[in-house]
Amino acid sequence: MTSLLHGRDLVRAFDHAAPAYDLLTALNPGHPGALRRSARRPRPAAAPAGAAAARPRSAHPEAHA
């Protein structure tokens, strides 16, 4: 089970992971553009309160069940 980090623990974890993230993004020149495209994507409409989803949606629209 994953626990959420808060406060100083979150800051330490971020600082610990930042160099590896920076290296990976430097090795992938298309990463900043992919992030921008993802941020501009429309979000799915929220389901009405109490409505159950017929089936879970995939995080990847191209994925087929």
Ranges where pLDDT stays below 50 over 5 or more residues in a row are: none
The chain-level structural class is: mainly alpha
Approximate shape = flat
The profile of the biggest β sheet is: none
Summarize the amount of helix as a percent range: 40-55%
Run of helices and strands: HH
Total number of β-strand segments? 0
**Beta fraction:** under 5%
Radius of gyration: 17 Å
Q: Give the termini separation.
A: 26 Å
What is the quaternary state of this protein?
Answer: single chain
Number of helices: 2
Write the SSE topology.
Elements: H1 7-27, H2 31-40
Description:
This protein is an all-alpha fold and 65 residues long. Helix content is 48%, strand content 0%. It has two helices and no strands. It has helices at 7-27, 31-40. The model has no long low-confidence stretch (mean pLDDT 81).
Keywords:
0% strand; mainly alpha; 2 helices; 65 residues
What's a quick, concise take on this entry?
The chain is built from two helices and no strands. The chain has 65 residues and is mostly helical.
